[in-house]
Every structure is written in C-alpha cells, then in structure tokens.
Amino acid sequence: MPTFQNVRGMRDLLSEDAQVLTLVVAKARGVAELFGFSEVITPVVESYELLSAKSGEEIRQRMFTFKDLGDRTVALRPEFTASIARLITTSLKNEPKPLRLFSVGSVYRYDEPQRGRYREFWQSNFELMGSSQPEADAETILLTDSLMKAVGLQDYVFKLGHVGILRGILTQEKIDERTQNAILQKMDKKEYDAALDLVNSEKCKTILRELMKMKSSDIFKTAEAVRGLMKSEGYEKSMEAADNLIEILKLATEGGCKIEVVDPAFARGLEYYTGMIFEVYVPELEIALGGGGRYDRLIEAFGGEPTPAVGVAQGIDRIALAGQSQGSVAAPQARKRVVVIPVSPTLKGEATKIARMLRDEGVSSEFEIMGRKMAKALEDADRRKLDFAVIVGEREAKLGAVVLRNLAKREQEVVKMNEIVGKLKK
Amino acid sequence: MPTFQNVRGMRDLLSEDAQVLTLVVAKARGVAELFGFSEVITPVVESYELLSAKSGEEIRQRMFTFKDLGDRTVALRPEFTASIARLITTSLKNEPKPLRLFSVGSVYRYDEPQRGRYREFWQSNFELMGSSQPEADAETILLTDSLMKAVGLQDYVFKLGHVGILRGILTQEKIDERTQNAILQKMDKKEYDAALDLVNSEKCKTILRELMKMKSSDIFKTAEAVRGLMKSEGYEKSMEAADNLIEILKLATEGGCKIEVVDPAFARGLEYYTGMIFEVYVPELEIALGGGGRYDRLIEAFGGEPTPAVGVAQGIDRIALAGQSQGSVAAPQARKRVVVIPVSPTLKGEATKIARMLRDEGVSSEFEIMGRKMAKALEDADRRKLDFAVIVGEREAKLGAVVLRNLAKREQEVVKMNEIVGKLKK
After folding, report:
1. Which tens digits make up the pLDDT trace of B266-296?
2. Which of A7, A18, A302 shows the shortest C-beta gap to B40?
3. Is B349 on the interface with A (CB under 8 A)?
4. I need a labelling partner for A24 at 20 to 30 A (CA). Which of A9, A181, A205, B271 fits?
5. Cβ contacts (< 8 Å) between A106 and chain B: which residues?
6. Is A415 helix (H, G, I), strand (E, B) or coil?
7. Interface membership of B187 toward A (CB under 8 Å)
8. Contact yes or no for B246/B199 (Cβ under 8 A)
C-alpha cells in the first residue's frame, strides 16, 4: 500500500522547527502579558457569513469554505479579527472599554505555497478596542517591535501608511465605497496603473500618482509633505489623517521603535481598515512578518455599538523562520536527559519506580522500553547524546542503589537512591 | 444588522477559561519533556483518505469532510494518531526506533454538544513507536497519571482492558475482521446485546457474556481470572493477551499509578487497537479525560514497516473543566499590573518612553490609551484592580521622576525614574 502524503500547502513541523514555533508562541504570549492583553480562544471554524462579511474579495476567494453536516456554510478562519469582532458584539458586549484582547493559533488561506507561505499558518493577534487615540495605534506598533526584539530579530523594517489619507481623497471625489475597495486592493498588490484606471477624475489621478512617488525613509518629512499636499489641494479629511499619522509616528518613535518607511500609497488587503496601517519586514523574507491597522467601523458593521479599534497580527511561523535564518532563535537547551535501564526483565518494576521518582523531581527521564540488552541500550543512548544512564541492577537494587553512568565521560559509579537526583542536577 | 453567532458546537474560551486551557497545555508539554517525548506539529487539515483509513465507522461519519479549492477531499483531523502514522511512514521513516512523539492542538468531531463535549476540542497526544514491550504500554498510563497529578486532579479512575483478549476469541471463532470491528463498536457503546447478536457461535457468545460480567476493581484477581478462563477454553492468543495485561498492570502499579478497574469487555471506538486499552475518568464528568492503547498494525496498514506502537490522547479542555470543577487549577496569578498615565496630551511621548522602560524590565504595563482625564483613568484602574499607576506629570518629568500611586493603599509618592522598577518589583 502506498503511503499517505500531506495535503498540498499543509506542512509538518518536526523537532527543532516545532520547538522554535512553540517558543515564538510563548514570546508572543509574554508580550501580551507585558502590554496588558487578555487571551481569548476562538474557534477555527466560523460561519462563512461572519468571515466573509468585511474581509475583502481577495481573502474571501481564498477561504476554506464548506458545509458542515448540519448544512451550515462555514469556513476555516483566514484571520482573527472577524472572530474578535463577533465577541465584542456578543459575549463581551457589556465589558467596559478599552478591551485588550490577545489570541494565537492557526489560520487558513488557499494561497499558492512558497517559502514562508503555507495554507495553514500561525498568527498571534492583538486587538485594542475602544480607543480612537493615536497612542492606541502606537501600542500595536510598539508591541510588535517588542516581539521582534524578544525573538532577537535584526534589520527589521516597519512601514507605515494611512488608509484615511487615500479614502479621504476618494470619498471627496465621490468614488463609491465598492470602487474604493477595488482601488485599494489593486494598490495593495502594487498594481498602480490598474488602480488608477478605476479612478474617474483626472485631478484625483494626479494626486494619487503624486502620493505613489512619496514613499520614503525620511518619515517625518514625508508625512509633513503629505499633509501639505492634502491641505493645498483641499482634502480636509486626508489632512486630518496625515496629522494623525504624524502623531502616531511621534509616539511610536518616542516609545523606542524605529519606523523606517512611510508610504502614503500603502494599502492592505483587508477592506475594513480606516486609519493607520503598518507592516514589518525582514530582508530574508519577501512577505511581511506582521501587520495591522485601525478599523473604526467594523464593530458597527457587525451589529455592535460604534467602537474605534486598532489591531495587529504577527506571522508566528514567519517570525520563527526569520529567527532561524538570522540565527537569533534556537530550540531551548533541553534539561539533562536521562535513560533508566533495567539490567534484566525482572527489574522492570524496580526501574519503573526509579523513573517515577526522578520525574517527580523534575528530571527528564526516558525508560528503556525496547527490552534491549544493556550494551545495545547504552549504545542507543550514546547515539542520541543523552547525558546519563541510570542502570538498575540486582545487586545494587538490594543495596538501595543504582549504577549512574555519565555517558559523555564514559564513567560510572554506584549511587545511593537518595543521592541520584542531587548528582543529576549538579 | 443582527450580530453574528458561533457555529453550533464551537465555543469561545474567555478570560480564566482561556488561561486555564493554556496552563493545561503547558502542563502536558511539561509531561512530554519529563518522559522524553519530542513535539511535532501536524496540520489540522489532512486528506480524508488518511483520516478515514483506520479510524472506524463511528468517527468517519462524524468528521468535518469537504473538498478544497483543488478538488481534494480533505477533513479536519478528529484525532492525532493518523497524522503521526503518516509521519512515521514518510518523513520519519528512517529515524531509529523507539520514537516518542508528542502533539497538542485542536481536533474536530461532529458530535452532539453536551457538557465537556464540543465539536472543536483540544488534545495532547503521545505516541510511542517501535516497542512491543509492556513497559511501553505502562509509560502511556504513567504519563497520563503524571498529567492528572500536575493539574492537581483528585479521585480520577483508570480503567484498563485489552482488545487482544476479545480479538483472540473472535478470530479463533473465525469471525471476520469487519464483523469484529462492528462487535467492538457495539461493545464500546455498551450495546452488549447488539454486540452478541453479531456473534454466530453459541460458545463464543457464552464466553463474551462471561467477560462482560467480570469488570472489577480487584484488578489482579480479575486479570488472573480472565487468563484462567481463556486457558480453560483454549483461547491461546487471548491467554497471552491476559498475560500481557497482567504485566502492564504490574508495571503501572509499581510506577505509582493506581489502576481502579479492569474490564475485560472494554472496547474503544477507534478500530486500530490491537492490545491494551485504557481510559481515565473523574466523577464530575461522564466522558473520559483521556484514553489510549496499543495499535501494532497501523503503521503497516499505512504503508510503513511493521512497527509496534502504543499511544494515548488526553482531552485538554476536559481536564481543564475537571480541574476547575475540583478547584485544583486556577488561572496563574498575574504579575503586578501597572497603568502608565500621562497627565496631559503633551506628555504622551514621555509616558510612552516610561512604559517602554517598564516593559523592558518585565513589568506588565498598560498605557492609558483613552486620553481620559486623570480622575477617570484612575477610577478605571481601581475598578479593574490594577496594582499601581505611574503618573507622568510636567513637573516630575522635568525632575526625571514620576508619581507612583499604590492603587490598593491609595497612597502615592514621587519616585525617581531609576527607582520605579525597584519599587514595583518589591
């Protein structure tokens, strides 16, 4: 019979890769605690209606959608924000604001697999509900920076934009929301000409073209220039958006995060953004390690009270990959590893007791479960670079002792039962 | 617009519930380390062919099965063992045995929702590949016991059986494997009469009826009695199975785990079991907290080398629920919680810097992101029982200091910047 394979785009994480992913999850959870976020766990399976409501056409087409046995149309979550918005409008409706909510888990998108992109991937997700202040936006940037630092990443680059600048222009030019979404989607994919083709006014095209050229690492100068342009062209809302962007840049910078790029023509795939948006990259990977932004109308669109909100998701497995590429994260050094070997089958029970005692004391202990002869068992322990073998023999057992073998040093000694743990922990 | 709801059977875990689940996951990971298991992460989405191959009709009918956009028939994993078997026959094919593999994550079954049973639930899963020795079986029991103890559970009950005893009889009576599976499924559901209806021989029916009455907490006596019956009736394979069960009972008992019940008519839903099977219960919940057993032919059936194997899965969310019912687990005590409040908007930047400094020192710090007046912000911090407020004022900032307010004691003092962390950590 042929063997079974993974479903295309779905991968396994083994040994060090699994440990590093778990480590990055722990780091994200640590950042959540440092920034005062509470963890919530929402299901992988949600109603299609919920997940598709405001996600944008791009993501909608890439969802794993199906009917469950109760004939409900459901899908695997492509991101966390819709689920959190559902919580805010239902179970958490009466919780006072602000709410700081953290989640971490797997999400699903039917994308073309490439390095760092799979159809199942992991995200940490932070949502800050109830504040329209720029310091809330800055928090999402600062906590992302904190996670990058916790993983030890170097040379990462934050890029900021502001959807409010673009939407301010398009709205004033009487472009309907649906067309606005389409334009922003094109800009997100850097299909700038296609985006401009959807714009009916020549003035608007000129301004957008101008913005597309302004991307720069001189972040405050760029933001001020955008503000000046919006003012001179009479786009009131866009000017306010530029002011807001400047405020956020200031706070994030003062909070110790270096913002490398401001791009006024930057857009993101999800159509619910209304304000500041950002992404963070490393040179090793083409795709962003994380990104987020402000979405002040989503909760209302989901049937809740109007609630300003800002959030960010980080790609846990991409961060793990970047950390491994840069050599900044490695699987945590394991505790000392011990194997407990009975010399003969009649001593299995005694050896089992000793393994129990060691584990109760926090000593990581394998049991020799293959029933192999001593030489074979030791050879295997050597090959796998275990630290110690606790050998349970007839004679020693009678004396309340074992043979403790240091596998690296190839030395052994008889050790009293109550002294084993001390010797192992030394 | 109406709000969105959870899909039926899928739930959210909020605040304490989420923390306790995360805690139990950490405990399971700790047990894996103590027993020398390596973590592997496999996808939630697997091919239907893989997941349905040996899972049994019962589970097959309850899987979330669908076609992906590439027209592949896939399903959400209802358990971990099939995925691990896939690994053993592919990526890990050449790894020397024994292999000890740990996984933890969500699994999916379309069951009727009830207390402690949802359509998305969490399992920790341990598989021990390559050993046919009874000490390997004992390890799966002992590590489960270790997890129960780590969570502080009381009054839990281990029940053991041995599919080899039942299959030995049925095979000798020339009942084909398909019918055997159907009989064991009925016995699993305690539909004993329906099970007996599928048996064609009167002798066999009598023996099975006998076994169904032998369930007892006098575990060694019961196991010996089963052995005696098998011997006197001439069921050679079943007698060997009873011997094996006795060995496992001895080792698990000597390893410090109390086995409360031996039930020779015990069967489990998954049809791949070949030897010892077990489950663990608490009085508070009708459904098992965990269970497993030996499956010596699965790897071969999946196209791999013949590989004896034994495994166990624990229901993480059920263990969390049981722990909460018994009052043995609670969300970990949070670190001291601090809120940083700028006295006026012009001090937001300065306050951001101070929050950064605190977080860099590991102090969990919220930032006052609502732009509220001081009195309002403090009132909110009081309500949420935060420990300290770090108040950033104009005058103090010029002196390189802040006002540190102990919210419980309602006392405050001016503290130099470099002394804040010391004061907070005291």
Report:
1. 998 778 899 999 999 999 998 999 999 999 9
2. A18
3. yes
4. A9
5. 44, 105
6. strand
7. no
8. no
Question: How many Cβ atoms are within 10 Å of B58's Cβ, its own excluded?
Answer: 16
Nearest to A259 by CA among A147, A141, A135, A133: A141
Least CB-CB distance to B12: which of A36, A91, A371? Answer: A91
Are A28 and A172 found together in one domain? yes
* Inter-residue contact B380 to B368 (CB < 8 Å): no
Do A357 and A303 lie in one domain? The reply is no
The rounded distance, in Å, linking the Cα atoms of B36 and B251 is 18
> Which among A29, A96, A366 has CB closest to B36?
A366
pLDDT at B200 over 90: no
Write down how long chain B is. Answer: 426
List of chain A residues with pLDDT < 50: none
| Beta strands A73-76; A65-67: pairing state | antiparallel
Q: How confident is the model at residue B1 (pLDDT cuts 50, 70, 90)?
A: low
In this structure, the answer to whether residues B300 and B373 fall within a common structural domain is no
> Do A307 and A368 share a domain, yes or no?
no
Residue B94 has pLDDT above 80, yes or no: yes
Establish if A41 touches chain B: CB-CB under 8 angstroms: yes
Residue A120 contacts B where some CB pair is shorter than 8 Å: yes
Q: Would A5 be classed as within a structural domain?
A: no
Structure-token pair, residue B69: 């956009």
> Rounded to whole angstroms, how far apart are CA atoms B221 and A252?
71
Structural domain that includes position A214? 15-326
**Phi and psi, residue B102, nearest 5°:** -115, 140
Point out the least confidently predicted range of B275-284, B330-339, B359-368.
B330-339
A208-240 pLDDT tens trace: 999 999 999 999 999 999 999 999 999 999 999
- Nearest CA-CA partner of A279 in A148, A168, A391, A152: A148
Q: Taking 90 as the threshold, does the pLDDT of residue B116 lie above it?
A: no
Domain boundary among A326, A359, A389: A326
The enclosing domain of B398 has a CATH number of: 3.40.50.800
Give this prediction's pTM.
Answer: 0.94
